[in-house]
Amino acid sequence: MVERSHQFELSSRLEAPASDVWAHATSMRGVNRELSPLARMTHPSDLVSIDARHVPLGRPVFRSWILAGGIVPIDYDDLTFVEIEPGRRFLERSSMLTQRVWEHERVIEPDGNGSILTDRVRFTPRIAFLGPLYLFVFRLAFRLRHRNLRHLFTGRPYP
Question: Are 21 and 115 in contact (CB under 8 A)?
């Protein structure tokens, strides 16, 4: 059996310091604001942010159910971080119900008075022929996330 990975990258310039963007990007509230209204990720109530001091690297931190529209379970993510550079970068390499491998790297770099946020996503579907469909859906979801980020960090209301 040949496994085929798919990948894409998306960057946005944000009008906020990298430290503010990092605080948002590593909070579960922030993740869910980015995904809204498309989806929501569940998390333990006592885990409000991804903090390198409290997150074990290379082991699942928790199982997050991905809820379409914030209601209907459509997938889960056994959230596993393999690298965290506080204030700058994380690399998640997890397994999901639909993905044998899910890899999400987020990098936040200072840029003048603002910052540049880059997401790199690579995944290997459990059902190979669904790869192009997942690629379309995941790109769409990350475009929404970046649109929400740009609105959040420009002081303009969400559309």
Answer: yes
What gap in Å lies between CA 61 and CA 84, rounded to an integer? 13
H or E element at residue 152:
helix 131-152
In the block, tokens 């006592």 appear at 46
CATH topology of domain 10-152: Alpha-D-Glucose-1,6-Bisphosphate; Chain A, domain 4 (3.30.530)
C-beta separation of 106 from 117 below 8 A? yes
Q: Report long-range pairs for 47-52 (Cβ below 8 Å, ≥24 apart).
A: 49/23, 50/26, 50/81, 50/84, 50/90, 51/26, 52/84, 52/86
pLDDT in tens, 83-131: 999 999 999 999 999 999 999 999 999 999 999 999 999 999 999 999 9
Q: Which sign does the torsion angle of CA 47, 49, 54, 56 carry?
A: positive
pTM above 0.90, yes or no: yes
With 0-12 / 13-18 / 19 or more C-beta atoms within 10 angstroms meaning exposed / middle / buried, residue 33 is middle
Backbone angles phi, psi at 24, to 5 degrees: -65, -50
**Residue boundaries of the structural domains of the chain:** 10-152
> What span, in angstroms and rounded, lies between the C-alpha atoms of 72 and 43?
15
